[in-house]
Amino acid sequence: MSWVYLSIAIVFEIGFALGTNATHGFTRLWPSVFTLLSAAGGIFTLSLALRTLDVGVGYTVWTGIGSIGTVLLGALVYKERITPAKLASFAAIIGGVVLLKLSAGI
């Protein structure tokens, strides 16, 4: 169940990151509300995942996969460029996440 909570936390993390850009410095009400709720939801569900996952594994997966999702959706939503260097970084993050999961024995 911890990996389910972590997956939900990752979705919230991506929503938080993308929402932060949409707030325009927290000057727009509904994007700001969305961003704050996403941040709270992400931290809450991450805390549930960390009941059984090592903090090093859980937090690293949360930020790593959240970063990949943010870059990919940032390209779709905000028309940001995905460069070869970003693709290589994705591969490194995914490889690291796989190794962390394997090392956790889960």
Quick description:
The chain is 81% helix and 0% strand. By secondary structure, it is mainly α.
What would you say this structure looks like, in words?
With 106 residues, the chain is mainly α. It has one domain. Helix content is 81%, strand content 0%. It contains 4 helices and no strands. Helix 1 runs antiparallel to helix 2 (29-49), helix 1 packs across helix 3 (55-78) and helix 3 (55-78) runs antiparallel to helix 4. The protein is flat, with a radius of gyration of 15 Å.
Keyword list:
EmrE-like; Small_multidrug_res; mainly alpha; transmembrane; 106 residues; cell membrane; 81% helix
Oligomer: single chain
Radius of gyration: 15 Å
Strand-pairing-aware structural class: mainly alpha
* Largest beta-sheet details: none
- End-to-end Cα distance: 11 Å
Beta-strand fraction estimate = under 5%
Organism: Actinomadura luzonensis
Protein name: Multidrug efflux SMR transporter
Transmembrane segments: 29-50, 57-78, 84-104
Main location: membrane
Draw up the topology in text:
Elements: H1 2-22, H2 29-49, H3 55-78, H4 84-103
Helix pairs in contact: 1-2, 1-3, 3-4
Family: Belongs to the drug/metabolite transporter (DMT) superfamily. Small multidrug resistance (SMR) (TC 2.A.7.1) family.
Keywords: Cell membrane, Membrane, Transmembrane, Transmembrane helix, Transport
Pfam family, one: Multi_Drug_Res
